[in-house]
Design a protein that fits this description.
- The complex is a heterotrimer of chains A (284), B (254) and C (323).
- The radius of gyration of chain A is 24 Å and the shape is globular.
- In chain A, strands 5, 6, 7, 8 and 9 form a five-stranded mixed β-sheet that branches. In chain A, strands 2-1-3-4 form a four-stranded parallel β-sheet, with helices on both faces.
- In chain A, 45% of the residues lie in helices and 14% in strands.
- Chain A is of the alpha/beta class.
- In chain A, α7 runs parallel beside α12.
- Chain B is 33% helix and 28% strand.
- Chain B has a six-stranded mixed β-sheet, with helices on both faces.
- By secondary structure, chain C is mostly helical.
- Chain C has a single domain, classed as ABC transporter involved in vitamin B12 uptake, BtuC (Orthogonal Bundle).
- Chain C is built from 13 helices and two strands.
- Chain C has a two-stranded antiparallel ribbon with strand order 1-2.
- In chain C, α1 packs antiparallel against α3, α3 packs antiparallel against α10 and α11 runs parallel beside α13.
- The longest helix of chain C has 36 residues.
- Chain C starts with a helix and ends with a helix.
- Classes of the chains: A alpha/beta (284), B alpha/beta (254), C mainly alpha (323).
- Chains A and C meet through α4 and α5 of A and α3 and α7 of C.
Chain lengths: 284, 254, 323
């Protein structure tokens, strides 16, 4: 054969070999994927259910309560999970959220040879990443759940003429708030609002800073904080004109599949505020 | 046997002892007197190797003290500081047997022989009946005797006592002084004890050392040490020494 | 003669310790059968041999360490109120741990204990530098320096708490209250080696250490190198306490109470009390840890609460009887 024919043959042979190599990668059979999973965080539990793998959960932390089925699963503890209880459930995988994970849990899991996957959920974009990681670990495809999440979030993207100043307080005495570079902050930006807090993280916020730069809207989780506590804060700060809104704690402080709901609720709150604000303010 | 050669010591710049020289032989009961702050305790501490002289030498059995291994010297010289007060309550016998510590090795316990020595020492101090009592259940005089027994348990050749008679009532002062005399006479040890009490010192001791401002000003037998002109010069009052039953007493004139 | 009386006492306490350990291994938040474990059930084996046994052993080691350190400091300082933490060890360790936890670094396994240990060593060094003057370590200055340093560290800890995230704060507080949560075999090995070294050193110094009870001058006159003994004793006690605190946080009362309890029952000197304190401390902490695990069904209570709850009534009853 001539040179051109030889080249074509080599090309076809090599692509065939590459294809063969790709196909030869062993398909992980369903039997190797974990079937007894323990979740150590409520958002992780929600992600697992969203991926359609909820039936594989054999235990969760004390705070996992969504969806309703999660409530009836055996509980292994809260901030400091009971490792004995975890082991007694004979899990083949434990999944935890990085924030609030006690370092000794990592060591104990290693000591008893139980695989542990730790996911990060600091920012809004981390949630999709966690879904994919958990999906990979469980052998459950995450595409649909991620797409649903992104659709829900995309639908709530807004720009507003005058960006309302929002603050999410997780505790009032002392005042702990959601700062910049958190998933709450990402939610605010998505809905066209601005975080009234100028520092990063989840800091303790001074009353002075609160008074110096008060928000237009103060979001308060409905279960941890009582109206009396909010009253006390506002009285001490001697600031008026702040709209206080109680939000579902499980949706607003859990970076999980239901953040779309949080975004939707946030937009409703902001729309409402804009309407009443424009009717209140005299035209400039 | 034990010599101090021109020893000096200063605490943080304050002179406590200035070039003191004294020699101590066998079987002597030596009283060390002088006003407060004259350097009595410091001299005793130097001889006991609690402090090291900043000038001069201390020599024991022709060897410099610093050349003696600490535990070896401790077997030969016993020291009793002022107001011993162990932190935790202990039984008298255990207190006394701890005086045998210089003889024990690193991981060793006291042997039956050590306990025998302790019992013997207690008997010598007329305190055998106190052996099983705890220190906090005893009177001051009884405690002092137990601590003396502790020093004696090691059978030292030199016994250094800092104010052993202070705060004892008079019957105990007499008992203790007689006991010291007895120990010197029976065992041949040399006892050097600091005291304020000139009279009891004069009554029992073979020799009196008087210190003043860190210097040794008198080193003589009691009759000479307490000559009237000396007494007037050193202590500022007129007195004379009377003798009775082989014991001396200082009687003030005014 | 001393050994004759020590052996029965040590045997009695050892028996108590073995009973306590057996209880601690048998009882927990889940019910596990030893039979199943021996037959090879992996879950039972994991729970018993990877979780309960190391935790029980670590509790015993921590208790022994703190009691021995407490005894050593009480002897060296000639002060019955001394405990292993007064020389700033606890403050330094807690400060290191608080800063590490409060800045969110706690998720790196092994970092918090390392920083805590470093803090303990730094504090010990600082206290010594402050208290030593021209080759002489003044016990009073040591105590004062330790007190002052502990106060300083408390301030630093409070500041780091104020700056921290709420979840990190909870973790830091729990550490400071003392916990054996997550004990592993490597913790056990580390502390066992350190404790063995420390006790060997202390046993070698024991004859000299007990002479300190009569006063430093008295001890010197009996041939004890007092400065060397003090230095070696303080360093040994501080380092081994630092290691214990690094592993399990601050567990109070043990170092103060156990030496007193042991001394009240057997009124002997340091040589005698050293092994007995180690055993007694082990018993107390093993039992306290057991209680802290089982009183609440689903979580643990801080162990420091139980060392007090167990130790104090026993101590009071002994106190009344001895008067």
């Amino acid at each position: 054969m001539n040179r051109r024919q030889r080249l074509i043959l080599i090309f076809h042979l090599s692509s065939f070999i590459v294809l063969l190599a790709a196909c030869a990668r062993p398909e992980r059979s369903a039997a190797h994927f974990p079937h007894r999973v323990v979740s150590l965080a409520p958002n992780v539990t929600e992600i697992i259910f969203a991926l359609g793998a909820g039936h594989r959960l054999v235990g969760t932390d004390d705070f996992s309560d969504e969806p309703a089925r999660a409530k009836s699963l055996p509980k292994v503890g809260g901030v400091q999970p009971d490792v004995e209880k975890i082991v007694a459930l004979k899990p083949d995988l434990v999944i935890a959220n990085a924030a609030g994970l006690h370092p000794n849990v990592t060591r104990s899991m290693a000591a008893v040879h139980v695989p542990l996957v730790v996911v990060r959920n600091e920012r809004l974009t981390d949630i999709a990443v966690s879904m994919r990681r958990i999906g990979a670990a469980l052998g459950a495809p995450a595409g649909a759940a991620v797409a649903a999440l992104e659709r829900a979030l995309g639908a709530e993207r807004r720009t507003r003429a005058r960006s309302p100043r929002v603050m999410l307080a997780v505790w009032t005495d002392p005042l702990y708030v959601a700062g910049r570079e958190t998933f709450a902050d990402d939610l605010f930006k998505l809905a066209g609002a601005t975080n009234a807090v100028a520092v990063n993280g989840w800091p303790q916020y001074s009353l002075e800073s609160f008074v110096a730069a008060p928000p237009d809207i103060l979001l308060v989780p409905n279960r941890s904080v009582t109206p009396a506590q909010v009253e006390a804060l506002l009285v001490r700060a001697r600031v008026s004109g702040i709209r206080v809104v109680y939000v579902d704690e499980n949706v607003f402080t859990r970076p999980g599949p239901r953040v779309g709901l949080a975004a939707k609720r946030l937009n409703a709150i902001l729309d409402g505020w804009e309407r009443s604000a424009s009717s209140r303010r005299p035209p400039r | 046997m034990l010599e101090a050669r021109g020893v000096s010591f200063a605490y943080d710049g304050t002179d406590a002892l200035r070039s003191v020289t004294a020699t101590f032989g066998r079987a002597q009961l030596v009283a060390l007197t002088g006003p407060n702050g004259s350097g009595k305790s410091t001299l005793l501490k130097l001889l006991a190797r609690v402090l090291a002289p900043q000038a001069g030498e201390i020599v024991f059995d022709h060897r410099r003290l610093r050349d003696w291994p600490a535990k070896e010297y401790a077997k030969n010289a016993g020291y009793l500081p002022q107001d011993p007060d162990p932190t935790f309550p202990m039984r008298a016998l255990d207190v006394v047997v701890s005086g045998r510590a210089p003889f024990l090795g690193r991981f060793a316990w006291e042997s039956a022989a050590d306990y025998d020595e302790a019992a013997r020492a207690l008997a010598l101090c007329d305190a055998a009946h106190l052996a099983d009592r705890y220190l906090d259940e005893m009177s001051g005089g009884e405690r002092k005797r137990v601590f003396l027994a502790r020093v004696l348990a090691a059978r030292p050749r030199v016994i250094l006592l800092d104010e052993p008679l202070a705060s004892l009532d008079v019957s105990h002062v007499q008992q203790f002084s007689a006991l010291l005399r007895d120990i010197v006479d029976r065992t041949g040890a040399t006892v050097l004890y600091a005291t304020h009490d000139l009279n009891w010192a004069a009554a029992y001791s073979d020799r009196m050392l008087v210190m003043q401002d860190g210097a040794l000003v008198v080193d003589d037998v009691p009759a000479e040490a307490l000559r009237p002109e000396r007494v007037r010069e050193l202590f500022g009052f007129d007195a004379e020494v009377i003798e009775s039953n082989g014991r001396r007493w200082l009687v003030p004139r005014r | 003669m001393g050994t004759k009386r020590l052996l029965p006492a040590a045997a009695a306490l050892s028996a108590l310790l073995l009973i306590a350990l057996a209880l601690a291994i048998a009882v927990g938040s889940t019910s596990v059968s030893l039979r199943a474990a021996l037959d090879g059930d992996p879950t039972a084996r994991a729970i018993l041999f990877q979780l309960r046994v190391p935790r029980a052993l670590l509790a015993a080691l921590i208790g022994a360490t703190l009691a021995v350190a407490g005894l050593t400091f009480q002897t060296l300082l000639r002060n019955p109120l001394a405990d292993p933490f007064i020389l700033g060890v606890s403050g330094g360790a807690a400060c290191g741990a608080a800063i590490a936890t409060a800045s969110g670094l706690a998720r790196i396994p092994g970092l918090v204990p390392l920083v805590a240990f470093g803090g303990a060593c730094a504090a010990t060094g600082a206290v010594f530098l402050l208290a030593r003057r021209r080759e002489y370590t003044d016990p009073t200055r040591l105590l004062l320096s330790g007190l002052v340093l502990n106060a300083f560290f408390s301030a630093v800890i409070l500041i780091s708490f104020a700056l921290s995230r709420q979840s990190d704060l909870t973790a830091a507080l729990r550490w400071m209250m003392g916990t054996l949560f997550g004990a592993t075999w490597s913790d056990v090995l580390l502390l066992a080696v350190l404790l063995a070294l420390a006790m060997t050193l202390l046993a070698a110094m024991a004859n000299d250490l007990r002479m300190l009870a009569f006063g430093e001058d008295d001890a010197k006159s009996r041939g004890v190198d007092v400065e060397r003994i003090k230095l070696a004793g303080f360093l040994t006690g501080s380092i081994v306490t630092g290691a214990a605190v690094a592993v399990s946080g601050i567990i109070g009362f043990v170092g103060l109470l156990v030496p007193h309890l042991i001394r009240m029952i057997w009124r002997r000197d340091f040589r005698f009390l050293l092994p007995l304190c180690a055993l007694g401390g082990g018993v107390l902490v093993v039992l306290a840890d057991l209680l802290s695990r089982v009183v609440l069904t689903s979580s643990e209570l801080p162990i420091g609460a139980f060392t007090a709850v167990l130790g104090v009534p026993f101590f009071l009853s002994l106190l009344r009887r001895s008067r």
